[in-house]
From TrEMBL:
The name this protein goes by in its record: Ferritin
Matching InterPro entries: Ferritin, Ferritin-like, Ferritin-like_diiron, Ferritin-like_SF, Ferritin_DPS_dom, Ferritin_prok
Organism: Flagellimonas pacifica
Highest taxon, organism lineage: Bacteria
Function noted in UniProt: May alleviate iron toxicity in the presence of oxygen.
Enzyme Commission code(s) on record: 1.16.3.2
GO cellular component: cytoplasm
Length: 173
């Protein structure tokens, strides 16, 4: 059984994961309109992944005797300036989500809920991967600079990254 404090914290994380999905969906739409097909595919995939993170939390809360709440979400912005600024925002958002997960883990320790602590270790590891991926993408963007040919190749390469990521995700199922 979840404590009320932990249930409230988990419901807050559900909202954060849902808003993350919306932010990445907005980024995908923006990129698609700009003709960045690969970036759009990458962001659509990220949006789907965040929704799955949310659903995993919803099911966990309900299975542990709590009640997962689906709340209002802040509308994400629709313009991201440049693709570099968009990916910087992605990176900053992943750091925010990591901190939120860390705060949630802290609550599990305060509440001595070791089952939830164990459950959240998947999220801790996932956030390490998300931050590393965002940092790698930003490094590649910085290498490109203002080279339009580099942007074309980056867009094509990130599309391949999306395909490879999807293949490795389904291979483990």
């Amino acid at each position: 059984m979840l404590s009320k404090k932990l249930e409230k914290a988990l419901n807050e994380q559900i909202r954060i994961e849902a808003e993350s999905s919306q932010v990445y969906l907005s980024m995908a739409s923006w990129a698609e309109v700009k003709g960045l097909e690969g970036v759009a595919g990458f962001m659509y995939g990220h949006s789907d992944e965040e929704r799955m993170h949310m659903l995993k939390l919803v099911k966990y809360v309900n299975e542990r005797g709590g009640h997962a709440h689906i709340s209002d979400l802040k509308a994400p912005k629709t313009d991201f300036g440049t693709f570099k600024e968009m990916f910087q925002e992605l990176y900053d958002h992943e750091i925010f989500v990591s901190q939120s997960i860390n705060d949630l883990v802290h609550v599990t320790l305060e509440e001595k809920d070791y089952a939830t602590h164990n459950f959240l270790q998947w999220y801790v590891a996932e956030q390490l991967e998300e931050e590393a991926l965002a940092r790698t993408v930003l490094d590649k963007i910085n290498l490109i600079g203002n080279d339009k040919g580099g942007l074309y190749l980056f867009d094509r390469d990130i599309q391949q990254l999306t395909v490879e990521s999807a293949a490795s995700d389904t291979a483990g199922e």
